[in-house]
Design goal:
The chain has 281 residues and is of the alpha+beta class. The protein has one domain: Double-stranded beta-helix (4-Layer Sandwich). The strands form four sheets. The chain has a seven-stranded mixed beta sheet, covered by helices on one side. The protein has a three-stranded antiparallel beta sheet with strand order 12-6-14. A three-stranded antiparallel beta sheet has the order 8-7-11. A hairpin with a 6-residue loop joins strand 1 and strand 2. The longest helix is centred in the last third of the chain and has 15 residues. The structure holds fe (ii) ion (FE2). Fe (ii) ion binds next to loops.
């Protein structure tokens, strides 16, 4: 679809669109930013190709959509703390984001979205998948939706970054290690209403959501396992094969994503900037 300034071409049936006609290194006019924002709301993840941005330009583009997030567990770049360098070296075993999740959903106000910029990619592999959480909710039965509405789910970084977590520093280049600051919990609605579109979506987040409020993990597991399977059903997904210079901008409020770890022996370097969001309701 041709908007006034950019061209938006759907990428998969469920979600995703390629956006052409915008140079993200530039200080884009407000109406172009508005078109990009609308494309994000319509398609949930948008992709840009052949971008050349400095870290400052990447940050400046992201700031057009909100204030920037500092990850509470992973250290940002030395000179640019709001940029997380997602680096996997040839000898690293573990990758960052290698399971279905939403980014830092355990925050009181989880992010609006992230803008991920590919700096160095393997010759093949390292694709990212996203899943549409509006569809995950809408495709449930009336009875199931009625049962889920009003439930509260516990979010926590503890299993990924807490004292009992697998130490990232042993087998990855991610700048964090098990620590007690990850030992906290947050409560969010299991079914969330998107603050801009008004549509309802499912809001589970893999290992960040270990149980429902007032239930044990064991009691919660059958339902949460079913919901994670529902959240990530193939017809609800899209997949991006990266080239250096590509940018993906996703709406973290209504999607999950998964970074494939299928390129052992190669380096992959991405820059992630995350935009603050608001309290789910
Ligand atoms: Fe992620």
């Amino acid at each position: 679809m041709k908007q006034q300034h950019i061209t938006v071409t759907p990428w998969a049936g469920a979600m995703g669109a390629l956006v052409e006609g915008a140079d993200l290194s530039q200080d884009l006019p407000d109406d172009v930013i508005a078109e990009i924002r609308q494309a994000l709301l319509d398609h949930l993840v948008i992709f840009f190709r052949r971008q050349e941005m400095t870290p400052e330009q990447h940050l400046a583009f992201a700031r057009r959509f909100g204030t920037l997030n500092l990850h509470d567990q992973v250290k940002g770049m030395e000179d640019h703390p709001e940029i997380i360098e997602v680096r996997k070296e040839p000898q690293d075993e573990r990758n960052f984001g290698g399971a279905w999740h939403g980014d830092v959903t355990y925050m009181e106000e989880p992010p609006l979205g992230s803008i991920l910029y590919a700096k160095e990619v393997p010759p093949v592999g390292g694709d990212t998948l996203w899943a549409n959480q509006y569809l995950a909710y809408e495709e449930l039965s009336d009875g199931m939706r009625a049962m889920l509405d009003g439930l509260t789910v516990i979010h926590t970084p503890a299993k990924i970054y807490g004292l009992q977590s697998q130490d990232w520093s042993k087998d990855s280049s991610v700048k964090t290690s098990p620590n007690e600051t990850a030992e906290y919990e947050t409560e969010h609605p299991l079914i969330r209403t998107h603050p801009e579109t008004g549509r309802k979506c499912l809001a589970v987040s893999g290992l960040f959501t270990p149980r429902l409020k007032d239930m044990t993990e064991e009691e919660s597991a059958p339902l949460l396992d079913f919901l994670m399977a529902q959240a990530t059903r193939e017809p609800f997904t899209c997949r991006w094969r990266w080239e250096a210079g590509d940018v993906a901008f996703w709406d973290n409020r209504c999607t999950l994503h998964y970074a494939l770890n299928d390129y052992h022996g190669h380096r992959r370097v991405m820059h992630r900037v995350t935009i603050n969001g608001d309290k789910p309701y």
